[in-house]
């Protein structure tokens, strides 16, 4: 690790690749969020990711590859469904869980016999992976527990001085992490909603089972299907309360209950309704793609404002709404008011 983080641009692919090849840590732009990347075949480099983020050792990372033709290097027993998903959604915001081969270091998979594989839809990052000639292990580039970074500046808030370089590829166009689908389960199981919707997955796979932890808090003692599910996530410092329901009714509920000086994350239509509060715009009520792009920056911005509490509106769970509401609910520790 170096004390100064090199700022790299899209023209600096070979410098980024050499950081990866020598076992360093590189911030990478993707369409979902910024990632904290290292050579996925180098256990010591991958260990440094956990140290920089303060990430629990039992929370596995995703291996990023330039295309589906690299799957066989790292995965065994690849079902035809994996190639069907790759054909339809890669490059793109979908992570596929498959059986791993022994060449994948334990530190990447947290000792699991499966590995998460993704081909990101960002030309800069695919170019740096191809130039390094190695799969890049990466989680989101935030300090563990904080909202994920959706631009280079947000990643540097958390990681400046802890990583060797960051490739600035502009703001993320999707804004929430990849969808995670486990193809080692029967039927396939959605472990995390993300940039590819459940509806779109089911067009390719048929029925998909949604893991319980997507919509509710794990019960005490309940074993998570994916290790990361048990950790606090995406949370600003102030406690968050999510208010679910028709947009106007939820906005009215928040108006009645919020105190001056508190934070409100609401749909664009209602931003004028909370004088005296710290208000952030989640995007238009009907535009879930815009909500996905805005949600992490909005949550993160409350840490720079002295609010004691945050109220949040939330979209319905159709299409991208499942991912947006999952991130909001997790930020709230599933503290939800249902109207
Ligand atoms: P992040 O994108 O920062 O959340 O980090 C990667 C995510 O992928 C975490 O939520 C992990 O729990 C998940 N993940 C990675 N590999 C696996 C796996 N083999 N099985 C289940 N989940 C995984
Ligand atoms: Mg993360």
Commentary on this structure:
The chain has helices at residues 13-21, 43-53, 71-74, 80-89, 106-109, 123-132, 152-159, 198-205, 247-257, 288-301, 321-331; strands at residues 6-8, 26-28, 35-39, 62-64, 75-76, 94-100, 114-118, 136-138, 165-167, 179-182, 189-192, 209-210, 240-244, 263-266, 278-281, 310-313, 336-338. The protein is an alpha/beta fold. Strand 10 (179-182) and strand 11 form a beta hairpin. Helix 10 (288-301) packs parallel to helix 11. The radius of gyration is 19 Å and the shape is globular. The model has no long low-confidence stretch (mean pLDDT 96). The site of adenosine monophosphate has 18 residues, from strand 7. Magnesium ion (MG) binds next to loops.
List the helices and strands and how they pair.
Layout: E1 6-8, H1 13-21, E2 26-28, E3 35-39, H2 43-53, E4 62-64, H3 71-74, E5 75-76, H4 80-89, E6 94-100, H5 106-109, E7 114-118, H6 123-132, E8 136-138, H7 152-159, E9 165-167, E10 179-182, E11 189-192, H8 198-205, E12 209-210, E13 240-244, H9 247-257, E14 263-266, E15 278-281, H10 288-301, E16 310-313, H11 321-331, E17 336-338
Parallel strand pairs: 1-9, 2-9, 4-7, 6-10, 11-12, 13-16, 13-17, 14-15, 14-16
Antiparallel strand pairs: 2-3, 3-8, 4-8, 5-6, 6-7, 10-11
The structure holds adenosine monophosphate and magnesium ion (MG).
């Amino acid at each position: 690790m170096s004390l100064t983080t090199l700022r790299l641009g899209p023209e600096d692919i070979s410098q980024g690749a050499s950081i990866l090849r020598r076992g360093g840590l590189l911030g990478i732009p993707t369409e979902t969020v910024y990632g904290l990347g290292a050579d996925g075949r180098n256990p010591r480099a991958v260990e440094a990711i956990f140290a920089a983020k303060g990430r629990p050792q039992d929370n596995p990372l995703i291996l990023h590859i330039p295309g589906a033709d690299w799957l066989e290097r790292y995965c065994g027993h690849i079902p035809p469904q994996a190639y069907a998903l790759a054909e339809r959604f890669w490059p793109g915001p979908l992570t596929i869980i498959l059986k791993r081969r022994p060449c994948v270091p334990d530190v990447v998979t947290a000792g699991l016999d499966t590995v998460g594989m993704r081909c990101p839809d960002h030309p800069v990052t695919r170019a740096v992976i191809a130039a390094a000639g190695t799969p890049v292990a990466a989680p989101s580039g935030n300090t563990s527990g904080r909202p994920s970074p959706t631009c280079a500046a947000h990643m540097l808030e958390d990681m400046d001085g802890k990583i060797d370089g960051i490739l600035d590829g502009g703001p993320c166009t999707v804004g929430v992490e990849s969808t995670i689908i486990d193809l080692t389960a029967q039927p396939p199981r959605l472990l995390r909603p993300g940039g590819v919707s459940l509806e779109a997955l089911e067009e390719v796979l048929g029925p998909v089972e949604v893991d319980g932890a997507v919509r509710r808090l794990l019960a005490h003692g309940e074993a998570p299907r994916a290790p990361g599910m048990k950790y606090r996530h995406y949370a600003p410092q102030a406690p968050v309360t999510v208010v679910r329901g028709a947009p106007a009714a939820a906005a009215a509920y928040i108006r009645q209950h919020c105190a001056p000086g508190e934070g409100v994350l609401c749909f664009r239509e209602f931003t004028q309704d909370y004088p005296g509060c710290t208000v952030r715009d989640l995007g238009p009520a009907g535009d879930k793609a815009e909500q996905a792009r805005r949600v992490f920056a909005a949550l993160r911005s409350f840490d720079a404002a002295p609010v004691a509490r945050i109220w949040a509106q939330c979209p319905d769970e159709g299409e991208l709404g499942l991912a947006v509401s999952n991130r909001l609910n997790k930020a709230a520790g599933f503290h939800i008011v249902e109207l």
